[in-house]
Write a structure and sequence with these properties.
The protein is of the alpha+beta class. Helix content is about 50%, strand content about 10%. The chain folds into two domains: about 10-80, 3-Layer(aba) Sandwich (Glutaredoxin), CATH 3.40.30.10; about 95-205, Glutathione S-transferase Yfyf (Class Pi), Chain A, domain 2, CATH 1.20.1050.10. It binds glutathione (GSH).
């Protein structure tokens, strides 16, 4: 009898689909590229350190475990996947250079957008005000999306294929929907295109079904706005 060696499948640790923006990045990249992985969802609690530290050295998600290697941080995971799959980054040099810049900018910036418009897929929020720093971030998102589409022809940011830069902006796509952020025509078409992807729909539907309502993440919303619609199934409707 022939025994084939068992190939271990990559394990991706993530948190709640409703809230975890960083988790969405590698999850959607793996899903869009059709790479095999096992999803392990560990819901947020008031203090995540002890729980997340069981698998992640930083006590944060996402965290990828493959054989005996642990890869933490969404950008490091993306680069790890790029070593196995040539489609993670665009093959065209100019597109790849642009994608790396926009991805790095997303990974390291957009503080106001992150702080004020936290990811919460299942609700719709009216913000109390659009502060100057937030407006600056929204304008920059518009600019990046428009530039990518116009320069590389769309419908994705660097052309015809979903790549890492789309994965890094996927949580922003949900944020623009939740907070109804003003998008120019090209950026709006991109937002709609991404929202309609099967992978985004799969994530979104799972987020709506989650029954964990985590007070810390909910309070972040109340600080800056008012919930005008809650589509989550765990919230009882009148
Ligand atoms: N730079 C990290 C950030 C990861 C991060 O902050 N993840 C959040 C969840 S979206 C987390 O695990 N927070 C832990 C906590 O809230 O205690 C990455 O890109 O993966």
């Amino acid at each position: 009898m022939l025994f084939l060696p068992t190939v271990a499948i990559m394990k991706l640790y993530i948190a709640n689909k409703n809230y975890s923006s960083w988790s969405l990045r590698p999850w959607i990249l793996l899903t869009e590229l059709g790479m095999d992985f096992e999803e392990i969802l560990v819901p947020f609690e008031t203090n995540n350190w002890d729980n997340f530290r069981k698998f992640s050295p930083t006590g944060t998600v996402p965290c990828l475990i493959n054989n005996d290697e642990t890869i933490w941080d969404s950008l490091a995971i993306c680069e790890y996947l790029a070593e196995q799959n040539s489609q993670v980054w665009p093959s065209n040099n100019k597109a790849r250079h642009w994608a790396r810049c926009a991805t790095a900018e997303m990974h390291a910036g957009f503080y106001a957008l992150r702080q004020i418009c936290t990811m919460n897929c299942g609700i719709r929020v009216k913000l109390h005000e659009i502060t100057d720093p937030l407006q600056k971030d929204i304008s920059r998102v518009n600019e990046i999306w428009q530039q990518g589409i116009e320069q590389f022809g769309g419908p994705f940011l660097t052309g015809t294929h979903f790549t890492a830069v789309d994965a890094f902006f996927a949580p922003v796509v949900f944020r623009t929907q939740t907070y109804d952020l003003k998008l120019e025509l090209t950026a709006h078409s991109y937002q709609q295109h991404i929202l309609q992807l099967d992978s985004m729909q799969q994530w979104y539907q799972a987020a709506l079904k989650e029954h964990w309502i985590e007070p810390g993440h909910e309070q972040e919303v109340f600080k800056y706005g008012k919930i005008v619609k809650d589509l989550r199934m765990a919230i009882s409707k009148p």
